[in-house]
Amino acid sequence: MPSRFASSMANLPLYAVVLIALGIAFFRVHLRVKTTLVGYEIGRLKANEGRLLAEKSELSVELARLTGKDALQARESSGETN
Asked: How do the domains of the chain map onto residue ranges?
């Protein structure tokens, strides 16, 4: 009659395969969750980029208006200094 120790040693390769399979499964789940989170972050950053581009455009128009020939002449004639 084989001892308990010998019987559990016979199942050692099976335990190793199960542990490796579980490790691979957890790693795949981790990668999928990470990919999803990165996707959400990219979406948030793209929305922020759109907002910043619109703000840049508005500021460029404002700068052009303030530094235009007419605006500069009006400031010069009124004696305004910043």
From this structure: 4-78
Per-residue HEC secondary structure of 36-77 comes to: HHHHHHHHHHHHHHHHHHHHHHHHHHHHHHHCCHHHHHHHHH
Give me the residue label for tokens 């980029």: 49
The structure tokens 């500021």 sit at 59
Per-residue pLDDT of the chain (82 residues; tens, 9 = 90+): 456 666 677 888 899 999 999 999 999 999 999 999 999 999 999 999 999 999 999 999 999 999 888 888 888 888 766 6
Cα–Cα distance, 58 to 49 (Å, whole number): 14
CA distance 37 to 44: 11
Using alpha carbons, select from 58, 17, 5 the residue that is nearest to residue 66. 58
